Amino acid sequence: MGNRFQEALASGRVLVCDGAMGSELQKRGLSGGDCPDQWNITRPEVVRQIHSAYVQAGAGIILTNTFGANRIQLAKHNLEGSAKKICKAAVALAREAAGPDCIVLGDIGPTGEFLEPLGNFTLQDFEEIFREQAEALIAAGADGIIVETMTSVEECAAAIKAVKSVSGAPVVASMAFEPTANGDFRTMMGASAAAHAKGNVAAGADALGVNCGCAIQPMIKLVEALRKTCAKPIMAQPNAGQPKLKNGLTVYEQTPADFAANVPALIKAGANIVGSCCGTTPEFTRKIAETVRSLQG
Ligand SMILES: [Zn+2]
């Protein structure tokens, strides 16, 4: 039997991915100092419930709650030795919620650290750290891996190589871009869409993604730009509009219906997988899935 994510990508159909995890955990009591990844172990019923809500809303792909489950991020919570245990528990929860048809991608986020000379880490360090996480996610039964919210092509490529060193599983490489004043897009570390495509395809990415950083309207242009640079499947996960500060809290105010109204243009621009990022809920996924169904008949 082939890999089900690879088969889904090859089908040519537009796939629907889930939405935000962090803000859903916060609604259920996760506070600023808590480790979201640890909740796979300490509050499994909460994580399972969020996954289930996205599956019921129509997600064909869900991402494990392991965005920060690498040794460096976990060390901030004195959990640096728990990466394997947390990743294993996370995949099990996602699989339970996924049922027989939904695809589970193991989620790998940034280390939050910089490479030499800006920081203290070498590419080899990053690869080793990501390998530990990737190995645990794949061994636990993830259908593939998404490396996401990356701002450095080098770090993203290190994560892809780490996955490929332990498994042939498909990898989505997704970076976070923000619009620039002159109408272009850059990551926080200054990478362009073309650099993303070049560096990460060379590292072995099976699909490219853009997530976070943008609302859906600017992301249509970003996907168009990325489509010009590569033929790989493209995944797009916009935020729920532009963030606003209200009483010291970051809030996203776009409605699911307004978001979904832009989905046909996002697909036309070249997106093959449509999900959503910060500030979104299962209601966004429901509207995305309805829109994709109506487009594909
Ligand atoms: Zn986000």
Report what the structure shows.
The protein is built from 13 helices and twelve strands. By secondary structure, it is of the alpha/beta class. It has a single domain (4-296), classed as TIM Barrel. The radius of gyration is 17 Å and the shape is globular. The relative contact order is 0.14. The model has no long low-confidence stretch (mean pLDDT 97). The structure holds zinc ion (ZN). Zinc ion binds next to loops.
CATH architecture: Alpha-Beta Barrel
Report Rg. Answer: 17 Å
Q: How can the largest sheet be summarized?
A: 8 strands, parallel
Q: What is the CATH C level class, in words?
A: Alpha Beta
Assign an overall shape: globular
Please tally the β strands and state the result: 12
Strand content: 15-25%
Low-confidence stretches: none
- Class based on secondary structure composition and strand pairing: alpha/beta
Strand order of the largest sheet: 1-12-9-8-5-4-3-2
Query: What gap, in angstroms, lies between the N and C termini?
Result: 28 Å
Task: Average the pLDDT over all residues and give the rounded result.
Answer: 97
